[in-house]
């Protein structure tokens, strides 16, 4: 097989490339134009989807990005993949600043970063056979000229994701949700990317199938040393696959730390509330559990509140919280949280 | 199953089929359960189990290509099927029998204010006048925890958040002063913090109003929070029923055990997630024997040929399995290595 | 060894899915189309009518009993008889033959306009939908402007200035008819663009052209086909209207619209002169509409299942 990526070899453990993280996001801000307001339409409205987000992802690790709908996690991921225009901030991938690349350079860049979609039903073109779907990236980047040449590679990929290679000749409608996600994963891996964004890859699957797919992703990471950005809202699932976790709320990162730090010793009130809201499948525990309830509604991202964005719903907010926005600072080594009070 | 008096809702040997070009899908096969007044029953299952179809059948919402082809649905002892049954259903639906659906975005009419929509129920089923309805709407919105209820009553659905819309749905369901609330995946489309609030609300209302609830969900965590009794469905049939405490602690059916094992928990960290290998059965040619047989770690020959009946074990516990209560903790964990298609 | 075994399995699977494919797939597609038609009698009627009309147009010289312009002043205004099943007109010409030959122009105009307007409109819609931004705004405003003009009036004005030849009619109608294709195409492109599999293709590095033709275009096939059939019917009527008003087909050519115009004066005395071309016109349009309606349902999986279930309903099942 012709060697594909021009960057690091993927076989075995992640190759040390010094201490530079694979993905580095600096002060990322994404604002979407959202029409106009005011009597004469003079005020331009913007949706503050992501504001001043910074984090890093080391090679071979999985960063779990959690938050509820509207928190900006999907937008952040797509900004990294250069699918969404940035308002400001910088993104570094494999040591290169990719914030402004376009055209052919961007296309080439796409070989190194891929996305696994959430919806197993809408993410596969129903008119193409599995072979064509998985081989398309190879065709488009000139790695193969005809479909026939791709069969071996596709067979390998299907086996990697646990599907019989013969399935490559079928159409997507012949497969179940879990199988389609496997095909999705196989497609994402076809160009041997170093970085894969998994955007809620198991949310649309049945519980008994989720484990299969999550375990598959973990296995692949062990074998190929791939770096993941795992986006999810199911905290129980995210816990299993992530090394480190970043919690987002209303476009900002409110807490980041290792998996154990976040789950066992959450510092930010939102993280604490989030964790206490997750139902545990055990009626005895549920009956005695104390819930931290947060009232109120999600802030309006067209006109975000001043100060800490969570202060309108925070159970321990004080005056300072509505005036000054707390920075994301270290509370315990690399465990950082954005709160004045913890 | 409790034995005091006539159950509020009784489903007997329900059969629902879908006539499609690809064949006839047997979505619900011989399903029976009942709900007593004031009780919360959780109907649990994954996609294809038939749980939503069962709920829709009770409500008379099955449309072509689907059809109820057998069995009965009874409300306080009287059938809801057939012509007479349909008239009865029209009377109680929205009133004594209320429903909350999954997607709050599309369940509310975007053209009318909250007040108008809830008011419609009040005027239709409770015969209230405009003024009376006005008052009651504010009361209901307050009951479901919506802040500034009078102001919010005048709002349109798109002005409310997802959680608020779901509360409005619940308010609308409560407007008829129902005895049974059917909630079809009421929190699946909501964020987890909002889900917690809604579930708390349902539990509170259930206590305050003595409401019976049929909660349909795939999430065992939700069931653990709200339901007193549980029925587990798979492949169009009921596999097990029992009280929540009992079922979670000591599942009798291998599928229940598998489902519990594959639900990741915040409080228990495993090195690897455990699932159930295989896929759900094809509903067009459903297996003759137990539908779970192909994926069951403790199956025996009998399971392939004969469908085990839903048998009563101890008080309140029913299991449809030839080897009920045989399943051990290790059975599913041991299959972790062979997680193939 | 393992690799050989796998290759063998692949080969077998490929044959089963792909190669038994071609003729088999075509036959299967045809058979399922016939089943679909059978379950919707109205649709079937529509298709048959259209087929009959087209056959009439194609085989006109073989089936018309008389030349369409053969005059016989001796036989003028004869009622329907064995010799002339549809009677004769004011110049003694056989109405049946004229109806048969008339189908040629009517259908030709319909097809040509759909082809011309459709191609242009779809292209505009594709560009507007995929490019978005200024390009889209420009094209859509152009569409809006043209739509604002009263179509028939514009056609009449142009045709009264330019000599109304067949080519002119087709061009004028096409100018008036491309907008609807553009709007529908753009709408579908916009909604398809958002689908995850299109995003996946772009993320994989596909260039725009490939994305449009491979991933977006196939979704357009069904709706556009339905639209084309309906537009075809509309164009047939448009041509008839123009001919009726004297600015369409000119004698000695024959079209249904022209026949209706010529027979206007004889409604009470010789009803057959105007009635038969009228029936032909109505049937064609009805057939096209029924066909389009059938296609719309067939293209939508849910509707198609409902139709199937209705037909297959077992009356002894429990009623609900």
Q: How would you portray this structure in words?
A:
The complex is a heterotrimer of chains A (342), B (341) and C (320). Chain A is an alpha/beta fold and 342 residues long. Chain A contains 11 helices and 12 strands. In chain A, the strands form 2 sheets. An 8-stranded mixed sheet of chain A has the order 6-7-8-3-9-10-12-11, sandwiched between helices. A 4-stranded antiparallel sheet of chain A has the order 2-1-4-5. In chain A, α3 packs across α4, α4 (147-160) crosses α5 (177-189) and α5 runs parallel beside α6. The longest helix of chain A has 18 residues, at 207-224. Mean pLDDT of chain A is 85; it is low at 1-17. Chain B has helices at 51-59, 82-92, 104-107, 114-125, 130-143, 149-153, 162-175, 192-209, 220-226, 244-249, 254-262, 301-305, 329-333; strands spanning 9-20, 23-35, 40-44, 66-75, 78-79, 97-100, 180-184, 212-217, 229-234, 237-243, 311-312, 318-319. In chain B, β11 and β12 (318-319) form a beta hairpin. Chain C is built from 14 helices and no strands. Chain C is globular and about 90 Å long. At the A-B interface, α5, α6, α7, α9 and α10 of A face α7, α8, α9, α10 and α11 of B.
